[in-house]
Amino acid sequence: MLNEFEQAIVDKIKTIADFRTVKGYEGEFARQTYKEILGLMPCALVVYEGGDFDRQNLILRRRMRWTVIVGCESMRKKDKARQKVYELLEKTKEALNDVIFADFEMKPLQIKRERLIYHDDRIVAFGQVYETEVREEV
After folding, report:
1. Half-sphere exposure of 61 (CA within 13 A, CB side)
2. CA torsion angle for 110, 38, 76, 72 (degrees, to 10)?
3. Which of 97, 111, 113, 124 is the most buried (most CB within 10 A)?
4. Burial level of 16, CB count in 10 A (0-12/13-18/19+)?
5. Which segment of 30-34, 84-88, 108-112, 113-117 scores lowest on mean pLDDT?
6. What's the Cα-to-Cα distance from 69 to each of 35, 54, 81, 90, 134, rounded to whole Å?
7. What pLDDT, on the 0 to 100 scale, is given for residue 50?
8. pTM of the predicted protein model
9. Can you tell me the distance from the alpha carbon of 29 to that of 12, in angstroms, rounded to the nearest whole number?
10. Residues 68-77: pLDDT tens digits?
11. Who contacts 117 (Cβ-Cβ below 8 Å, separation ≥6)?
């Protein structure tokens, strides 16, 4: 179920034409070189942050948190880069906030927080955290 939900988020973000890379996060910031990371930019990387479970009779409610890492060239470099990352954050929020995926019995995705998660002279990355609840029969 998690793979399918991640793919639904990725597919929705792909409707935003300004990203070069949109996919599930595979540790790119931890294990790739600067050159490889810059080759992904601008990017949206999706990762499951975790969730909570509540079982009621034969229904399992899963409250899930997903983070979308929005990465771009560093804001320090120039004004245009700063405007670009802010634009990407807004477009991502517009694409995902309040969305319901047809393949899931779910509450709408809701953005809960947005924060700077990485910044240096060449790269900036923000994390947008979305929450939802999915009902599953057990």
Report:
1. 10
2. -20
3. 124
4. middle
5. 30-34
6. 18, 28, 16, 13, 22
7. 93
8. 0.90
9. 23
10. 999 988 755 5
11. 69, 125, 126, 127
Beta bridge partners of 133: 63
Give the total residue count for the chain: 138
- Whole-angstrom Cα distance, residue 46 to residue 25? 5
Q: Are 14 and 24 in contact (CB under 8 A)?
A: no
Locate the DSSP E strands across the chain: 21-24, 43-56, 59-73, 110-119, 123-137
Q: Letter for the amino acid at 56?
A: Q
Half-sphere exposure for 27 (CA within 13 Å, toward CB)? 2
Count how many Cα atoms sit within 13 Å of the Cα of residue 81 in the half-sphere of its side chain.
Answer: 16
The long-range contacts involving 25-30, CB below 8 angstroms and separated by at least 24 positions, are 25/69, 29/69, 29/71, 29/118, 29/125
**Token digits for 111?**
């953005």
CA distance linking residue 133 with residue 136, whole number of Å: 10
**Peptide bond before residue 42 is cis, with ω within 30 degrees of 0:** yes
Residue 23 CA to residue 61 CA, distance in Å, equals 26
SS3 127: strand
Exposure string for 85-100, b = 16+ CB within 10 A, e = fewer: beebbebbbebbeebe
